[in-house]
Write a structure and sequence with these properties.
Keywords: Membrane, Transmembrane, Transmembrane helix. This is Germination protein YpeB. Residues 169-355 form the Sporulation protein YpeB PepSY1 and PepSY2 domain. Strands 1, 2, 3, 4, 5, 6, 7, 8, 9, 10, 11 and 12 form a twelve-stranded mixed sheet that branches. The chain folds into three domains: 2-187, Four Helix Bundle (Hemerythrin (Met), subunit A) (Up-down Bundle), CATH 1.20.120; 211-354, no CATH class; 368-425. The chain contains twelve helices and twelve strands. It is an alpha+beta fold. Strand 3 (253-260) and strand 4 form a beta hairpin. Helix 1 packs antiparallel against helix 4 and helix 4 packs antiparallel against helix 7 (165-185). The chain is globular and about 70 Å long.
């Protein structure tokens, strides 16, 4: 009997060893496959950077439209291809964003020259330095794929996504390089400067509020949490703008809320708790959401859209301009409402607080027959503010159009110049 027991133990051990080695082999095969994939993407990105530089060289040779068309198209295509390669790599967000921004500017610039929106002379002036910078950046890619794609290095750096201190330093250096090139080759326009100021909430001129002021405002906005245990901290010195962070806990409910230090404006709110299986109807959900918006002081908004998942409704609101009642889509508030009882679970008011800078603008009547095909019907018309290519908010006709041939489209037309700002096909 004892011998039989030992046989079972040994058999089980053998099965475990075989299983363990099978799993190890599968993991090794997976790592090797991923390492090969990342190595190929790194090689591809580096080679295309050189090709992109060569294509830019061609755009510096010619000045007539016919000769420029193909190299400009190559610049646009290659910049898009390289962005796809970079987006597939698990590198840090700052470096990836810097690369995307730089390549997007080059690709968009080429497209605008082809469309006649940017003079070729302006493009050629900007590209003199950019072509050299691209070759320099291509050389810097080499460290990520050293030793001809050494498997151990690729696995450590990308597959496991744990870069060594030296590799981290190299990536930071690469990110700093592309940032410097972007700033020198593509200085910020006035519109982009305004965008950055808006993101950093530099327009808020309210007096700073105290911790006690924020606690009172939290209790006013969320009376059901007035007796919750809360802990308040201030943002660090490196934060783009000063704010208070409130953590709260009451029974089964835990979460946080952020308020700006200047003026005590509510930036965000998030709460977690268990959910019941019952669900309120759509109309009740809308009523509760509108009541929440009124209580929080966002009364000058309109419900734009909503969707649901298994536990919550997600709603998007946008501010209405006080002068003409047009919807400012960029000034949005996002809500998350519980499906079981309509309780507020989340809110993000950053876009609303950033508040777009709206310039005065004429409204020129639009003759639809001059713009649209004869069989196209206008199903709905309203006014809204949307961005143009220069990142400026423009008052536009928002038109819901339908054609039996091509389906339904939403089109935004500048109310003054009648330029087509945006168009999208709807399901």
């Amino acid at each position: 009997m004892k011998k039989f027991g030992w046989v079972i133990v040994i058999a089980a051990l053998a099965i475990f060893v075989v299983y363990h080695f099978n799993v190890q082999e599968q993991n090794t095969n997976l790592k090797n496959a991923l390492a090969s994939q990342y190595s190929n993407q790194l090689n591809s990105a580096s080679e295309k950077l050189t090709e992109l530089s060569d294509s830019i060289d061609e755009t510096l040779i010619f000045k007539d439209e016919a000769s420029l068309d193909r190299p400009l198209q190559d610049v646009w295509r290659l910049s898009s291809d390289i962005r796809a390669s970079i987006s597939a790599l698990p590198i840090d967000q700052e470096t990836s964003s810097g690369w995307m921004n730089y390549l997007t500017r080059i690709g968009n610039g080429a497209a605008q020259v082809r469309a006649g929106k940017v003079p070729i002379e302006e493009w050629q002036t900007n590209m003199v330095d950019a072509r050299g910078n691209l070759r320099s950046l291509s050389d810097q890619w080499a460290f990520t794929n050293r030793d001809d794609g050494n498997k151990d290095y690729i696995v450590t750096s990308f597959v496991q996504n744990k870069l060594s201190k030296e590799s981290q330093k190299n990536w930071k250096s690469l990110g700093a390089s592309v940032k410097a090139y972007t700033e020198s080759d593509f200085p910020m326009t006035a519109s982009e400067t305004d965008q950055q100021k808006k993101k950093d909430l530099q327009h808020i001129s309210d007096e700073p509020v105290s911790v006690e002021d924020v606690k009172e405002k939290f209790a006013k906005f969320f009376p059901e949490l007035a007796d919750a245990k809360i802990h308040v901290t201030e943002s660090g010195k490196d934060a783009p703008y000063p704010f208070y962070h409130i953590e709260f806990h009451k029974g089964i409910r835990i979460g946080y809320a952020d308020f700006t230090k200047k003026g005590g404006h509510l930036l965000s709110f998030l709460m977690e708790r268990p959910f019941d299986k019952n669900s309120i109807d759509t109309e009740s959900m809308k009523e509760k959401a509108l009541a929440q918006m009124k209580r929080l002081g966002f009364e000058d908004t309109e419900l734009i859209e909503f969707r649901e998942n298994t536990i919550a409704w997600h709603l998007a609101f946008a501010r209405k301009d006080a002068e003409n009642n047009a919807i400012v889509y960029a000034d949005g508030v996002h809500l998350k409402i519980a499906k079981d009882n309509g309780e507020l679970l989340g809110l993000n008011a950053m876009e609303y607080i950033q508040e777009e800078k709206i310039a005065s603008q004429k409204i020129v009547p639009l003759d639809y027959k001059e713009i649209f095909a004869d069989d196209l019907k206008i199903e709905e018309e309203k006014m809204a503010y949307v961005e143009n290519d220069e990142l400026q908010q423009r008052l536009a006709y928002e038109l819901l159009t339908r054609s039996d041939k091509i389906g339904t489209y939403k089109v935004y037309i500048d109310a003054e110049t009648h330029e087509i700002l945006q168009s999208e096909k709807l399901p």
